Amino acid sequence: MKLANPCPESLTEVQNSYCAGCGHGVAHRLVAEVLDEMGAREKTVGVAPVGCAVFAYDYWNFDVTEAPHGRTPCVAAGIKRVLPDRVVFSYQGDGDLASIGMGEIIHTANRGDNITVVFINNANYGMTGGQMAPTTPLGMKTATTPLGRTAGEGHPIRIPELLNALEAPVYLDRQSLHDPAHVRKAKNSIKKAFRLQVEGRGFTLVELLSTCPSNWGMTPAEATQWVGEQMVKTFPLGVVRDKS
Question: Structural domains in the chain?
Fold first, then answer.
């Protein structure tokens, strides 16, 4: 019997290693669906980070390379400059992009490199035990803020708004993966970011609010509810910049 919603060609049909309720699998599928619909699978290069998404190359059925921790956007920029006809994107978590890689994302965006960044924000360091991340909301408990993050430990960083201070970025957007309606909006944002890259418009970034039930100490259902009710208060959804 033919499946009503078969696996996208840009995904490999293997069991993933993500925790139950993690948003990475949803994000992976959205990227895969978009590339299939654009007919871009054979000319796509992804760049995976250090972090929970380090094994992305096992799940995507197109060329994916790995970058040193935090260097993901500059590796992607280098690939794009050497192979300008490819669709090149980095796939990064909040530790990789907003902590050790803060310098790289700012300078890549400031140069206006014609790449796309898919930024997964789950408000903690998922792979290493749930420590506070640059994106952890105030009051949120983590392994290193057991009483809740305070302003003395820094305010959560809003990456699209930060990059909006630069001249070069073309498209900066924030969406969420906490329910089907928002997943559909996230897919549309990813597709637009890739389309603008294909058109040679410049740097694009889509942030996706995601879940980490294991480190948050929640069930998958509780985690998705928390994103929709609480996390969006710190990270408002919608387009921050669109110069298209």
Answer: 24-242 (3.40.50.970)
Q: Report residue 161 as tokens.
A: 């708004």
Q: Whose CA is closest to 22, among 117, 140, 161, 130?
A: 130
Give pairs for 14-17: CB < 8 Å, separation 24+: 14/58, 14/59, 16/55, 16/58, 16/59, 17/55
Q: Which residues contact 134 (CB under 8 A, 6 or more apart)?
A: 94, 95, 98, 99, 102, 154, 156, 157
pTM: 0.96
pLDDT digits (tens, 9 = 90+) for 32-70: 999 999 999 999 999 999 989 888 989 999 999 999 999
